[in-house]
Amino acid sequence: MTSTSRTIQTSRLNTAVLERRAAGEVKRRLLLVHGNVSDGEFFRDLMDSLPGDIHAVAPDLRGYGDSEAKRIDATRGLKDWSDDLLALLDALEWEGAHLLGWSLGGGVVMQVALSAQQRVQTLTLVAPVSPYGFGGTHGADGTPNTPDFAGSGGGTVNAAFVPLIAAGDRSDAAGSPRDVMRKFYFNVPQFQPDPQQEEAWVTSMLKTRTGDDFYPGNMTVSEHWPNVAPGTAGVANAFSSRYMNLSAFAELNPPPPVLWVRGDADAIVGDTSLFDLAQLGALGAVPGWPGAEACPPQPMLTQMRTVLERGEVNGGQWRELVLPGVGHSPFIEAPDEFSAAFLEHLNQG
């Protein structure tokens, strides 16, 4: 069976999905959730390689791909997306499923587990966002750097990048969507997509809705460095630690089994992320950085590891798999190694 596209009307919005039906009897159901500036198309090869007993669905989140464009209320954190996914499970008539989340999608599937633990059989977190969102925090417990969570939210996104998405820029010029994908989604030159794959993925990126209600969202001015703080709408505000806090995942009794897969060359999610303004300030790339005591880089990996370790007290089981030489997209860059670990995880769930 190969993957095909369709649109499913749920109780919340028309949701575009990439779907790979089972070849015979359905024994396992799998929901795959993409990250920021992407859509379900990135999962096509993984889905087509799955065993025939798996019915797999990769939705386009609101604000992405071909799904209905509805405003993202950032004050709910990731709950607009997690509620959308629960409505999709209802429309599919799936009581439960295995969930895989990549990058931002990792946070979304953790939020699904917090909202409806009984519907989650296993979680696979692929290069996931920190449980405390992106930017503006320090320490294993996600302590905010400032009272207004400066350094996170819509104002932290490269202002030159968003208009290129809106304009449908397919060039390979510096800073273009294609250039960003090549440099940061993958660890190049170790991984090189074939031209047909790359064109499909650039198309996916360019379907991202832009503006204050979508990507990156609005912002507020801050008196604290870097002088921007979260607004109330859109993607980057939804994953600001002002509104996103998934630390209660450790309090589930028990948390669902977790496989955490990441590459050791990931430049987006890490303890020294090149997308964290505090890290860029420390490198001298953003002027005015007040120093490590006032504004240290966010230890994203440490924060995730701490939450998963705390979950062990309540019976949580988890495994961290680090793939050498791999960037932000392990299931694409190292498909054999990823699939072996992933299928073993599903068999245990």
From TrEMBL:
GO terms for molecular function: hydrolase activity. Pfam families: Abhydrolase_1. Keywords: Hydrolase. SUPFAM superfamilies: alpha/beta-Hydrolases. The keyword S-adenosyl-L-methionine does not apply. Residues 30-280 form the AB hydrolase-1 domain. Gene3D superfamilies: alpha/beta hydrolase. InterPro entries: AB_hydrolase_1, AB_hydrolase_fold, AB_hydrolase_sf. The keyword Hydrolase applies. PANTHER family: AB HYDROLASE SUPERFAMILY PROTEIN YCLE (PTHR43798:SF31), MONOACYLGLYCEROL LIPASE (PTHR43798). This is Alpha/beta hydrolase. It comes from Deinococcus arenicola.
